[in-house]
Design a protein that fits this description.
The protein is an alpha/beta fold. Helix content is 40%, strand content 18%. The structure holds NADP nicotinamide-adenine-dinucleotide phosphate. The site of NADP nicotinamide-adenine-dinucleotide phosphate has 22 residues, from helix 1 and helix 4.
Length: 213
């Protein structure tokens, strides 16, 4: 699969390396793509670097891993991502992103994932990877045994995208637990019940079942 990475930092850089290792074609992007040379080198032959617009254009699946508050300006550059799968890994931190976004989400009754999806109305948006530290994502990929596999909670409503994403997770050595559509993602937001969970699939499924029954 062709994967565009928007925000090649802790999350995007490390996941991109995993995706490339698993055989996917990864295009990292940055406002300064010339600074991504050693990331591309580390990711190997399946990786390249470009500007944000090119990565958005090239990817069938786009990983968005930038500061939450930069979504509106990024949307101006990359458009609606029509027909693509968008994985939203962002979290809202008022101290970093400004209080105005929090006020807007409260007024519009939007969760963080729904707010982001409102900018990309023609994409199939999945929320994933936001609830787990980049260190864990980096270190726990490609486990040697099935017993060591961790599960990642994710949300979204399109059946095909859900299957594509589960396969992608499996490719890099994680299991997925689908928790529902974006309306279910409050539990994935910072300091909520699924935030910071590092559990194997069966245990994460139990937690999710209790949360939503
Ligand atoms: N760190 C974690 O463990 C973790 C875990 C889960 C979720 N998250 C969330 O995931 C997102 C990314 O976190 P991170 O830790 O990977 O951050 P990071 O290492 O600081 O990387 C963020 C990336 O965003 C890009 N960026 C910064 N300002 C931008 C702008 N104005 N327009 C477009 N791109 C911009 C930067 O790319 P250039 O400067 O190269 O353009 C940078 O590579 C955040 O929303 C964070 O809250 C982080």
């Amino acid at each position: 699969m062709k994967i565009g990475i928007i925000g090649a930092g802790n999350i995007g850089g490390n996941l991109g390396k995993h995706f490339a290792k698993a055989g996917h074609q990864v295009m990292f992007s940055s406002r300064h793509p010339e600074q991504l040379k050693h990331l591309v080198k580390a990711a190997g032959q399946n990786a390249s670097a470009a500007n944000i617009e090119e990565a958005a254009e090239c990817g069938e699946l786009i990983l968005l891993a930038i500061p939450f508050g930069k979504v509106p300006a990024t949307r101006e550059k990359i458009g609606t991502l029509a027909g693509k799968i968008l994985i939203d890994a962002n979290n809202y931190y008022p101290q970093r992103d400004g209080a105005a976004f929090g006020k807007e989400m409260t007024e519009k009754r939007l969760l963080e994932s729904e707010w982001t999806a409102s900018y990309f109305t023609k994409a199939s948006v999945l929320k994933a990877f936001n609830s787990i530290s980049y260190v864990t994502l980096t270190e726990r990929a490609f486990p040697e045994t099935d017993k060591e596999r961790l599960a990642i909670p994710f949300a979204g409503s399109d059946g095909r995208s859900i299957e594509v994403f589960k396969t992608l997770l499996n490719d890099i050595g994680f299991d997925g637990v689908h928790i529902g559509d974006l309306a279910a993602t409050k539990a994935m937001q910072p300091n909520e019940k699924l935030y910071g969970t590092e559990l194997p699939q069966a245990k994460l499924k139990d937690v999710v079942k209790k949360l939503y029954r």
